[in-house]
């Protein structure tokens, strides 16, 4: 203390600093509470969107096609091979986000989801109870053609029941703020052109084509790991690391690309990461794999995306 400072003045300064600190804590608490309330409310009630219902087939061939699509699109990667679900995020301070049980068993959504509800969830990002669906690439699944989506739903509706009650999404204070405020605009329901959903026909499988490859890249959600421009995920927190695919033809041949998708073996003798569901891509036909190659190699080579 300065020798010339009166003790009463020093006490006044100390009190002002204390009150100022308390005021900042109170203001921060009020702001956090407001953001938490806003985020929670937003996530609980998705924007109203018009669905694009499809007519669901019942023949065994359609169900078989639907199961193949469930593998290619990653349904069985995130919700497990039997679709019984698994905790997707379970850590503080975010909270708990399950990849739900999709079957009609105990704890599953199969008994409560109508064909219309499945369509709204998969292509629009709105859960049957009106919540915003998070951590699911519905912005990519929005490209599903009606015929393929109908087969997929046909499979989901009759998938064997598995009892597995994972509970509901429970976000902590930071989780609600992150998911419901800061990341809210990035969730599928807010990024999709809902009026265009259902307007795309599945490209023909009569011969390999760039168009079919582009369609498959969409419904397989390749961009989730390799970025929208296919130049690689360079370290974003919200997706696994995927390499630059625009330069694929510079290091791999078409045969090596096919082998990698069929067996997981790269030309370098390594095995593809399990973060890439290559084991399910073995369900792709030769025409589909060749179409993917045609699409990838038609892209302009880009430098690797930077963090």
Which CATH first-tier class of the largest domain would you pick? Mainly Alpha
Query: How many β-strand stretches?
Result: 3
Number of domain modules: 2
CATH architecture of the largest domain: Orthogonal Bundle
Q: Strand order within the widest sheet?
A: 1-2-3
Mean pLDDT: 90
Quaternary structure classification? single chain
Alpha-carbon distance between the two ends: 49 Å
Poorly predicted ranges: none
Largest sheet report: 3 strands, antiparallel
H/I helix tally: 13
Structural class: mainly alpha
Q: What is the CATH topology of the largest domain? A: Cytochrome Bc1 Complex, Chain D, domain 2
Mind telling me the C-alpha Rg?
24 Å
Shape: globular
Order of helices and strands: HHHEEHHHEHHHHHHH
Strand content: under 5%
> Into which percent range does the helicity of residues fall?
40-55%
Please tag this protein with its features.
single chain, 3-stranded antiparallel sheet, 2 domains, 307 residues
Written overview of the protein:
The chain is mainly alpha-helical. The chain folds into two domains: 60-173 and 183-196, Cytochrome Bc1 Complex, Chain D, domain 2, CATH 1.10.760; 210-298, Orthogonal Bundle (Cytochrome Bc1 Complex, Chain D, domain 2). The protein has 13 helices and three strands, in the order H-H-H-E-E-H-H-H-E-H-H-H-H-H-H-H. It has helices at residues 7-44, 60-72, 75-78, 115-124, 138-141, 146-158, 173-182, 188-191, 210-219, 223-226, 254-263, 278-281, 286-298, and strands spanning 86-91, 95-99, 170-171. Helix 1 (7-44) packs across helix 7 (173-182), helix 2 packs across helix 6 (146-158) and helix 9 (210-219) crosses helix 13 (286-298). It starts with 6 loop residues before the first helix and ends in a 9-residue tail after the last helix. The mean pLDDT is 90.
